[in-house]
Design brief:
The protein is of the alpha+beta class and 723 residues long. The radius of gyration is 43 Å and the shape is elongated. It has 26 helices and 28 strands. The strands form five sheets. An eight-stranded mixed beta barrel has the order 19-20-22-23-24-25-26-27, surrounded by four helices. Strands 3-2-1-6-5-4 form a six-stranded antiparallel sheet, sandwiched between helices. It folds into four domains: 127 residues, Beta-Lactamase, CATH 3.30.450; 105 residues, Beta-Lactamase (2-Layer Sandwich), CATH 3.30.450.20; 165 residues, Alpha-Beta Plaits; 215 residues, EAL domain (TIM Barrel).
Length: 723
């Protein structure tokens, strides 16, 4: 057989073979005429960035550069210039290029300068593009996974250790080194060195635990204090499990965790708990005592009256309730100012107490009014001497801040059980008697006449007249805005009832709500208020105004057995009713009469999309337990605290305490009584952002609300209405 040399492949064969290789490897080829800027390329080069060759028939170098990611352009130019300068044999760079569909793809660009002109300037360069997007994405995922692992260890601050009792070698994980603020190249761990980091007290504990682990096979789980290599003291948790062989410990292993932050949080929580207890104590004190005179306030007075009345019924004795009103006090206050007036009230309170027995109660009822509760009397006349002493003590000259001031008092008295009424009615009767004493010339006392109780008949007439007003549609809801003090957005309105009395004009609730208390009219009027509020919600919603409306619910109405079913019937009349657009406000005291029933009602209403607020918070008897059990969403700070917060630091501290309590129970706070921009500023500094009050807007009829809302959106300015 004759051997013949193989013929050399043709140039055409070489080209075809090269094209097959290029196509198989997915490489894009480019050829750059540097002097003209013209760039030639193959189909794959264009395909990498989503185009066909025909779409990119005329491409200049600037076109290529403009397709680079802005962050990669400078790097690509620098490497290209280095290649032109002869600093690199091959030009290589990884860049992002803009794809036709708008996203970026990663490209590995490699090229070589193959020709220079006569002056040595770059003339021609060829190279390739390779799509490395998948590789880059994989690398990024690896980086993210690695970072997540390291971050998880660092966040948990959880290290580990292992002690080989056969070889004596102690191993630490990377995180254990980090906890000790060192590294393997700087520190070689040993048992003695590890124990030496602990504080002396902890060294004793850990040494004893290690001894029991080694000699008795008993593991441990301890929280101790230790130092790092840099001298920083930290709290750590260290555990140990024991591996035994033939009854002997051969290996110890466990975790080593930095729990400094957890300990700090626990200590902080303990402090917050103590602060909350202090705040609760302050709230209780404020809820029961007058801040100026430190006398029992109305709330505590009512409680004392109920106790005294119960005692006298058991012992068949009597109680005197004396309503004391200072004559001409307003003139002194107006002439000399509140400072003198307050000092005079404190002195009067002190002098009245000096004339009473130790077991009796003197309460500041409000302004220049006091209530003397004289208990354990054999007969009503036994109180005469005490009341006369009080009259004489007041009807004298007081020296206050260098001024000699003369006042007197008018006193009205009623006696239980002869006047067999609940505490609030006894106070009204004593008040009526005081008014008669004032009419008769002041500086005297008058006893309530039970036989000729005009007030009882008047009360019956008033109830009848209020019932008639309800049927004749004489009531109207006024609306007071509630705003966010930061964004100035109107977040709600409180509906407040007014009576258009044919003879007496527009009357506030003060003139008629006390009259219907505990009467069936209280529930009837409550139904009317809810229905009127829902009608207005519907009207506003139809006009594109979405503002929640709050209405006040009386204790009697809240405890009505059909309250929730009737509310559901009302809501069913408005299919477009939006959840959380109706808020019901209940007084702190009303909820506490039956905390279980109140909670059930609030939860039931919540399923209907109706929220609850606790109104006048701080003025009642709430405990943290009761607050926790009431599923309300808002606390409304009683306006008496807000109004005086600018001059009374105790009131400011109480407000701060309420805000902190609200945070703990995840409740939002609305501050009532914002009368000035200074009130708003102080509340914001304490963390209260929602507010209402005369400084924002007075209650207004619905006919005025739209214009007010438009003006507020244009210029949300608070005004000073403190006077």
């Amino acid at each position: 057989m004759e051997n013949k040399p193989l013929s050399s492949p043709s140039r055409q064969d070489d080209r075809e073979r090269l094209e097959l290789i290029i196509k198989a490897t997915g490489v894009g080829i480019w050829d750059w005429q540097i002097l003209t800027g013209e760039l030639s390329f193959n189909e794959r080069w264009a395909d990498i960035i989503g185009y066909s060759v025909d779409e990119l028939h005329s491409v200049q170098f600037e076109t290529w550069a403009s397709n680079l990611h802005p962050s990669d352009l400078e790097k690509a130019k620098q490497l290209l210039q280095q290649h032109f300068n002869g600093e690199t044999d091959v030009y290589e760079v990884e860049v992002r290029m803009l794809h036709k569909l708008g996203h970026y793809v990663w490209v590995f660009a490699s090229g070589k300068l193959i020709e220079r002109d006569a002056s040595g300037q770059p003339k021609r360069m060829i190279g390739l593009h390779l799509d490395i997007t998948e590789r880059k994405q994989y690398e990024e995922r690896l980086i993210v996974s690695s970072q997540l692992l390291n971050e998880s260890q660092e966040v948990a601050k959880l290290g580990g250790w292992e002690l080989n009792l056969v070889t004596g070698l102690l191993f630490w994980t990377d995180e254990t080194y980090r906890i000790h603020e060192t590294s393997p190249d700087k520190f070689d761990p040993t048992v003695d060195a590890g124990v030496g980091f602990f504080l002396p007290e902890s060294q004793v504990i850990i040494s004893d635990a290690l001894d029991k682990a080694i000699n008795q096979g008993i593991g441990y789980d301890l929280e101790l204090e230790t130092y790092t290599t840099k001298g920083n003291k930290i709290d750590v948790r260290t555990t140990c499990t024991v591996e035994m062989k033939d009854g002997k410990a051969i290996r110890l292993a466990g975790i080593f965790q930095d729990i400094t932050e957890q300990k700090h949080v626990l200590r902080k929580l303990e402090k917050i708990n103590l602060d909350l207890e202090d705040a609760n104590s302050a709230l209780q004190l404020s809820a029961h005592y007058d801040s100026l005179t430190e006398l029992p306030n109305r709330n505590l007075l009512t409680d004392r009256m109920q106790q005294a009345m119960s005692r006298c019924l058991r012992s068949q004795r009597s109680v005197a309730v004396a309503f004391i009103d200072l004559d001409n006090f307003k003139e002194i206050n107006d002439k000399y100012g509140h400072s003198v007036g307050d000092a005079l009230l404190k002195q009067v309170a002190k002098d009245i107490q000096a004339e009473m027995r130790s077991g009796d109660t003197l309460s500041r009822f409000g302004g220049d009014e006091f209530i003397a509760l004289i208990d354990d009397l054999d007969s009503p006349s036994d109180s005469d001497e005490i009341i006369d002493r009080i009259l004489n003590a007041i009807s004298t000259t007081f020296e206050v801040e260098g001024k000699l001031l003369s006042i007197s008092a008018s006193i009205g008295v009623t006696y239980f059980p002869f006047d067999n009424c609940p505490p609030d009615q006894l106070l009204r009767h004593a008040d009526q008697a005081m008014y008669i004493a004032k009419q008769h010339g002041k500086n005297q006392r008058h006893t309530f006449d039970i036989e000729h109780d005009v007030a009882t008949k008047q009360h019956a007439e008033e109830l009848k007249r209020i019932g008639l007003a309800l049927t004749q549609n004489e009531f109207e809801l006024f609306y007071q805005p509630q705003v966010n003090l930061i964004t100035h957005r109107v977040v709600g309105v409180e509906a407040l009832i007014r009576w258009h009395h044919p003879e007496r004009g527009l009357l506030s609730p003060y003139y008629f709500l006390p009259v219907i208390e505990n009467d069936v009219l209280e529930v009837d009027l409550g139904r009317w208020v809810i229905q009127a509020a829902l009608r207005q919600l519907h009207a506003w919603s139809s006009a594109g105004i979405e503002i929640p409306v709050s209405v006040n619910i009386s204790p009697m109405h809240l405890q009505h057995p059909r309250f929730t079913s009737e509310l559901a019937d009302m809501l069913s009349q408005y299919p477009d009713f939006k959840p959380n657009s109706l808020h019901l406000e209940i007084l702190e005291s009303s909820a506490l009469k039956d905390i279980t029933q109140a909670s059930k009602v609030i939860e039931s209403c919540g399923t209907m999309g109706v929220l609850f607020s606790i109104d006048d918070f701080g003025a009642g008897y709430s405990s943290l337990t009761y607050l926790k059990r009431l599923p309300a969403k808002y606390l409304k700070i009683d306006q008496s605290f807000v109004i005086d917060m600018l001059k009374d630091m105790d009131d400011r501290a109480i407000i701060q305490g309420i805000i902190e309590l609200a945070k703990v129970f995840n409740l939002r706070v609305i501050a009532e009584g914002v009368e000035t921009p200074d009130h708003a500023e102080q509340l914001l500094s304490l963390g209260a952002t929602l507010a209402q009050g005369y400084g924002i807007a007075k209650p207004m009829p619905v006919s005025e609300f739209s214009s007010w809302l438009a003006a507020w959106k244009t210029a949300p300015l608070l005004v000073d209405r403190s006077e």
